[in-house]
Amino acid sequence: MTLHTPSRCVLLLVVFLFCANSLCAQYSAITVSGSIKDNQTKGSLSFVNVILKNEKDSSFVAGTISNEEGRFELTKIKPGRYLLLFSFLGYIPKQHPLFVGNLSEFIDLGVEDLQADIQTLTEVVVTGKADEVKETLDRKTFSVENNITQSGGSVLQMMQNLPGITMQEGKVLLRGSDKVVVLIEGKQTALTGFGSQTSLDNIPVSAIDKIEIINNPSAKYDANGNAGIINIVFKKNNREGFNGKVGMMAGLGALWIKKENLPDIRPQFQNTPKLNPSLALNYRKNKINTFFQGDVLYTPTLNKNEFVVRTYDSGEVINQQTKRNRKTTISTLRTGMDWNINPHNSLSFSGLFSSEKILDNGDEPFFNQYLTERRRLWQFLEDELKTTVTATTAFQHKFREPGHIFNSGLNYTFHREDEKYFFTNIMPAFTGQDAFKLLSDEHVLDYTADYIRPLRYGRLEAGVKYRWREIPTNMQFFPGQNSPLDVNAGGKATYRENIPALYSTYVFENTKLELEAGLRVEYVGVNYLVDPNHNTYKSDGYNYTQPFPNVRLAYKFNDYNKISLFFNRRVDRPNEVDIRVFPKYDDAEIIKVGNPALAPQFTNTLEVGYKSGWNSGYLYAAAYHRAAQGTITRIASTVPGSTLIYSIMQNAGKSYMSGLEMVWSQKINERFSFNLNLNGYRNQINAFSVVNQYPQLNTFAAPTESMWSGNIKWNGMLHLPNQFDFQVSAIYLAPDLIPQGSIGQRFSLDMGLKKLMQNGKQELYINASDLLNTMQIKKTIKGMGFSYVSTDYYETQVIRFGYNYKF
Hints:
Blueprint: H1 10-15, E1 30-38, E2 49-54, E3 60-65, E4 71-77, E5 80-87, E6 94-100, E7 106-114, E8 140-143, H2 155-159, E9 165-168, E10 171-174, E11 180-184, E12 208-214, E13 228-234, E14 241-253, E15 272-285, E16 288-298, E17 301-312, E18 317-342, E19 345-367, E20 374-398, E21 405-426, E22 431-455, E23 458-478, E24 491-509, E25 513-530, E26 540-558, E27 561-572, H3 576-579, E28 590-593, E29 601-614, E30 617-629, E31 632-637, E32 645-651, E33 655-667, E34 672-685, E35 688-692, E36 698-702, E37 705-720, E38 724-733, E39 736-738, E40 741-743, E41 746-757, E42 762-769, E43 777-783, E44 786-792, E45 798-806
């Protein structure tokens, strides 16, 4: 892999000395249980002594006695090798080796038989060595509290510093792909999208506890999202009594102008203020736990400042700027209650309300090649309100055996998208006033039921899920003088989706082998009902019944070295926005349109991973290959006699991604730790040809394209005296392949300083994202009859100050 590094990336080599320690999750506190019976009468034996000892040094680890039903339970056992001893007056003592892995939180040993007799117990020496590497190969977990550089920002901003994640046009990419499913508390909601990610920038970091990255999801999860899953976990305190946390963040962005405007347009945002007050409350007493989390995020932003040079085959050249000053106010409220009815049954209720108010003031001037003639000025105001309401109820029944659980849940989501666009179309000969209004209501109902049964060497999981989803949408156009709007392309459309699914997963683990094998079977039925008066598109849809297997097989050379093989099959179903038939005019001359004939994209992924751990860190390296059929992407094309570019969703055929990834985490000493993430991959999109229906039939064809790309991330944490923590994050993204072109290299540097007081009850922090103001997005696109080069100098540099108080 060749990375084209600019001279400023020499600075990246310097900041390599500063890097961060990521907190990666595994099961490190295991519960071991079983029951004891007489081997002849099969009657339960009470008050049997159960002792767990280390294998080598005979040191005592845990002990208990069996209850009236003969059951025993050993909690908080670390992974390792042990010997389990049973002794009871009148019975022959029994002992056997016990291996405790880290794939299952609960181990059920089943029935232990004791033989009647009286003998003296000979003490046996047992040892165990727990795995010190806090990393599993299926997922990584990152604590938000340890990300000082993005405290006070949004979840989208915070994620860009996590290993394996990059950003592109407001979307999260895992290993170079934006086909990522984002979950809230393990569930899909309209807040972050169904099947595709949305609105990650409307969730404040102050509301989040941790983020999980799952590159190779098991069959338990929905099959969509070929790149993997990101799970966002909200904060919740379970301490007894009344407690909480209050915080405030203030900041400034766009501290200086990256590139001056084209002539005669309104000024771009500068010195944009940021505010984020937050409040978390929790009260727990006896069987009831109640919680509340409230956040407001006010963020005026230079959301877009893109300069475009378009060149047509006729020789015509157009210089264009798209400048969007955005004011965003986001309110997020979450509350709920957990009720432990009795030791075996619990019930929880929770609700989430999110309101995102967006006001965009934009200018789009269009000039000739030499900026001597302005051909058009397109000014717009977008007034958008997004409202999300989610209600969740969950029931859990715990059987007598620890970890033997039945879960059932019902989740309802309502999401309203209310957009109003007002345009002023200033031409040399006239000025027109145009507008449109879009109203979209999304209703989603999910029911899930899961059964988990611990085994002696693993666990068995099975479950069902049913989803019903409906999205009625209404687009109304209000044309002005000589309007460029396609008013006949408006109207109503309704998206309907039904998905029942079954899954089963088996997990096995012993001292040398780990196996996770699962199968999910989904039926998907989608109907998209289009207004019969639409001038181009008609009603469409699809349905399928498909299996989605996953396998993970690992061999452990010893306690610190392991090699694993992963395989899974996943799907990316078109989101409602991808098939939405209404043209979108947020750019006057590049019109985005959906496609109701869009089909699902199926992907097979194969990965080989190797982990080596030691007491102060670990190294994880992986080689992966993804092969996609029916690749979903946007295709930009023109029609004869027009310079307008239509960007339409299409299935582009086959695409491939092959890559190598490395994550190295190291604790140097008590004060300094670092994390390095390297990812290099080759993207390929095979030659394809598609037929665009809008605004008239035209064919687009493209040859095979491929490119090597990658990224480097360093995060560093330095613990200073007097409870000061200093963090540095540096990111370099190499040029990458995008449909019909490429995206240029990018670089940014983030820093943060935090001060703890009163044993962590108070916290002060200051941070700066893109400190050197170097982040910009440059794209080169080649279409049939045209090409263009664009550079977006949007706001990336933000300085924040914050204070948090826990009580």
